[in-house]
Amino acid sequence: SGASNPLKPLELFSSGPQAEVIQTQTKLPFSTIYNQQELKRELGIAGKQQRPVMVDFYADWCISCKVMETQVFTQPDIDQQLRQFHLVKADVTDNDDKNKALMNHFGLFGPPSILFFDAQGNELPDLRIVGEITAPDFQQHLQRALNSG
């Protein structure tokens, strides 16, 4: 059908109020990175702003990533919490050498994975999320990260 979202294969054919809501949603301000150097840059930017960091390891081919992006991150309370972080999306769709090096650096085998860093750029390993997570559990994780960072 030409749609890019595997959760909504007929999205291009839909219309009406629901389609309008999708178009008017505000996107979260993620900075997209592909390698370790870009992550270091983003951690530096967050440090200057004294903001904690959330890094979402994502791939276009990852169904669980799409579920989290559309059904978890968009929850109003979660959206509000996420806006307190410097948000980084590590796009590992290509699975090239730089993507693999970035994942290997953190001992990850693939998306979805979410890492949290304090404002000084130190990872908070106890808050790592590997795999899909429910909205209530994710909300608790975010609160713990905000209290730690």
Q: What's the topology here?
A:
Elements: H1 17-24, E1 30-33, H2 36-49, E2 53-58, H3 63-72, H4 76-82, E3 86-91, H5 97-105, E4 113-117, E5 129-130, H6 135-148
Parallel strand pairs: 1-3, 2-3
Antiparallel strand pairs: 2-4, 4-5
Helix pairs in contact: 4-6
What does this structure look like?
The protein is 42% helix and 15% strand. The chain contains 6 helices and 5 strands, in the order αβαβααβαββα. The protein has a 5-stranded mixed β-sheet with strand order 1-3-2-4-5, with helices on one face. α4 (76-82) packs parallel to α6. The protein starts with 16 loop residues before the first helix and ends with a helix.
Record the strand order, biggest sheet.
1-3-2-4-5
N-C termini distance: 44 Å
Summed over residues and divided by their number, the pLDDT gives a mean of 87
- How many whole angstroms does the radius of gyration measure? 16 Å
Q: What is the count of β-strands?
A: 5
Shape: globular
The string of secondary-structure elements, in order, is: HEHEHHEHEEH
What can be said about the biggest beta sheet? 5 strands, mixed
* Uncertain residue segments: 16-24
Portion in helices: 40-55%
- Quickly count the helices: 6
| Structural class designation | alpha/beta
**Strand composition percent:** 15-25%
